[in-house]
Amino acid sequence: MFESIADKLKKSEKIVFVTGAGISQESGIPTFRGKDGLWRKYDAMKLATIDAFYEDPKLVWEWYEERRQNILSAKPNPGHLAIAELEKHRQVHVLTQNIDRLHQRAGSKSVYELHGSIITVKCTVCSFKGNITSSFSKLPPLCKCGNILRPDVVWFGEPLPQDVWQDAISQASSCDTMIVVGTSLVVSPANLLPVYAKQNGASIIEVNPEETPMTPSMDLSIRSSAAKALPELVPIVFPV
Ligand code: BJW
Ligand code: ZN
How far is the CA of 183 from the centre of ligand 1 (A)? Predict the structure, then answer.
């Protein structure tokens, strides 16, 4: 790593991670784009929009139930664990597009779920929101109010939860270093977070085996997997 970036990282009081599907790839959770990505197998517009959900709620629910089972049986990998470890030494916040809760299971305390969570549901009509505690006997599941429940995730064309998004902008705009891990940075508005960081003078580092549209703006690009690269960053931030 270049000396100046390593120095900046070492001196950073506040480190913000922006994470995407790539960080969970080594936990056995598929990414969306790329050669084994979900969008190669499935049509996003038939599964990840509100119109698709109303068209065929059972189909969309079956897809989420299958993914939820896979996610529940997955474990945080050394990448998630390294981020949680850093939190013991520095102020660390995680702005994640992932819905898998693996950061929280790894021990990260300050996690902002930009695209919701696969573990929670919300009602399509009333304000009910709750955790999924067991398998549903019938799909789509119904709310106490009689209307259908939906996964509490953000689909294409839907706004991000506004409180979470405002907090994410504020964390991105006030960090010393931002580390962008495992995201293609093609989905807006999450892909603006490195722009906020850069505009406010932070160093930005990406960890991704592939280039992204933000690669030219990065102070450092680590072309490696998250589970390999992130544990190597810990002793740089906090030498023993
Ligand atoms: C590794 C690795 C390893 C691999 N280690 N790295 C035209 C039409 C319609 C909409 C739009 C449009 N143009 C723009 C839009 C807006 C749209 C958008 O951005 N679309 C683009 C795709 C073009 N955005 C939205 O619609 C958002 N909402 C919005 O804009 O609202 C506006 C609004 C305001 C007010 C009122 C109303 C509306 C919402 C976006 C929601 C995205 N939802 C999904 C599904 C979530 C639920 C679920 O999981 O089912 O979120 S889509 C999917 O993409 C998911 C992800 O969070 C998101 C980002 O993907 P991510 O994480 O970057 O994954 P990949 O697969 O793309 O990349 C993985 C990366 O990891 C790669 O780079 C690999 O190289 C790397 N990698 N292995 C490290 N081991
Ligand atoms: Zn309801």
Answer: 8
Catalytic site residue 103?
Answer: no
Together in a domain, 171 and 213: yes
| Distance of CA 96 from the midpoint of ligand 2 (Å) | 27
Residue 51 Cβ contacting ligand 1 at under 6 Å? no
Based on the domain organization, do 215 and 190 belong to the same domain?
yes
Closest listed ligand to the CA of 210: 1
CB-ligand 1 contact for 188 (6 Å cutoff): yes
Helix (H, G, I), strand (E, B) or coil at 61: helix
Structure tokens at 42: 């499935």
Which residue among 96, 130, 153 closes a domain? 153
Handedness of CA 36, 65, 80, 207 (dihedral sign): positive
Q: How far is the CA of 163 from the centre of ligand 2 (A)?
A: 22
Out of 80, 93, 103, 115, the active site residue is 115
Q: Are residues 111 and 226 in the same domain?
A: yes
In tens, the pLDDT along 72-92 reads 999 999 999 999 999 999 999
Sign of CA dihedral 36, 47, 192, 18: negative
State in Å, rounded, how far the first CA of the chain is from the last one. Answer: 18
Least Cα distance to 171 among 238, 114, 98, 235 occurs for 114
pLDDT in tens, 181-227: 999 999 999 999 999 999 999 999 999 999 999 999 999 999 999 99
Under 8 Å between Cβ of 204 and 56: no
Q: Is the CB of 220 under 6 A from ligand 1?
A: no
